Amino acid sequence: MGSGASQEDYDKLSLQFYETALRSTCVLPDVGIDESLLKYSGVNSNAALEAYSNELVNSVPDFIEKLGSSLGSFTSIPNAVGLGALVISMIMEITMKSSTQPSEDTYSMLRRVFGEEKASGVRDTMSEYLKRHRLFINNEQRLREEIRRLETQLSGHLTILRNSLLHDGQMSSRGFKIWVNGASFHLQMLIHEARLNVKAGKRESGYVESIQAAITLYLQHLDNLLNEYKHYKISKTYVYWFQCYSPDCAMVFSPHCVLSNLESKRTCEISNYNQPGCSGSEISKGFNDNVFSKYEPISSLRSHFLKFKNNIHSLINQHDDFTLPTSHHRFS
To answer: Sign of dihedral through CA atoms 175, 180, 185, 190?
Structure first.
C-alpha cells in the first residue's frame, strides 16, 4: 500500500477483505453456537420441535412407526422444551437417518462442534448427558440426579479448557468453538434442572439467582476468551502483495493483494488491486476488527448468553409436552 498510506486507506482495504470473505466464506472462523443449540435454547423450543416433527412426518416414509419404535411405549413426553426438545429432536434425527443411510449413532451436533477432536472431556460429558437424558426421559427424579452429576462434571471440563486456551498457549478456533458451545449447553443443563425441580415443588428464586450468577461468570469468561482469540486470529492472518514476473503467468495473474489464514491454510484474494505494497499488520488487524464486530456468529455470542438471563423465568416455567405424532398428522 506504500509508505504514504493513510489510516483511511488501511480501513478501506480491510473492509474490502471482509466483504470478499463474506461472499466466498474463506478465512472466516467457524466458531459460532451450533444451529441445534440455537434452535432449542429459546422460549419457542417446543414449537420448533413440533415444526421439525411435522416436517419429518411429511417427508420421511414410515417415520411415525420408526419414531414410535425408538421411543418405546411412550406416546407423550413431558418437559419437551430446552434440552428436552433438543434430545427429542436428536432421536428424530437418528430415526430419520436410519431410513436413508446405514445406522449412525453420532449426533450431527456433536460432529459439527467437535469435528475430529479426539480427547475432549467436554465432548464426552455432553455425549453422556444426551444418552442419560434419553434413557430417563420419562423419569424426572432420576433425570434430575443425572443432570446434577453431569453438569458438575461439565463445569469442571469447561474450566480446564478455558485455562488451556487462556493460559497454556492452546488457543485455536476449534478449542474456542468447543468452549462457547459447551458453556451454552451447560447453562441449558442448569435451566432444565431448575425446570424439573420447580415442577417438583421447590422454590424458583434460588435457582434463578445461581443461574444468573453462572451467566454473568460465563460472560466475563467469554470477554476474556474473545480478546485472546482475536489476538490469536490476528497472528494467523497474513497479508501480502502478489505479482508474477514470469511472462507465462503474468498473462494469467494480475497483481493483487492476498489475505491468508495460516490456521486454516485457506486463501482469500482481492484481485486487480492496482497499488502494490499492501502488506502490513494494520490490514490484518483491521480485517479482524471487522470480523469480530460484524460477523454474526462471533458478534452475537454475548447476546446468546444474555437471552438466557433475560428469559430465565419463562424458560424455567416451561413444561410443554411432546405428543408422538399419529398417521392423521401426515400432510396436515
So the answer is: positive
Query: Model-level pTM?
Result: 0.91
Phi-psi region of 243 (alpha: psi -120 to 50; beta: other; left: phi over 0): beta
Which three three-digit cell numbers place residue 182? 459447551
pLDDT of 332: 43
Residues 154 and 122 sit within 8 Å (Cβ to Cβ): yes
Q: Is the pLDDT of residue 3 over 70?
A: no
CB atoms within 10 A of CB 124: 14
By CB atoms closer than 10 A (0-12, 13-18, 19+), residue 78 is middle
Q: In angstroms, how far apart are the furthest CA atoms of the chain?
A: 81
On the question of pLDDT at 316 being above 90, the answer is yes
Higher pLDDT, residue 324 or 197: 197
* Contact by Cβ (8 Å): 86, 122: no
Rounded to an integer, what distance in angstroms lies between the CA atom of residue 282 and that of residue 324? 57
Upper half-sphere CA count for residue 128 (Cβ side, 13 Å)? 16
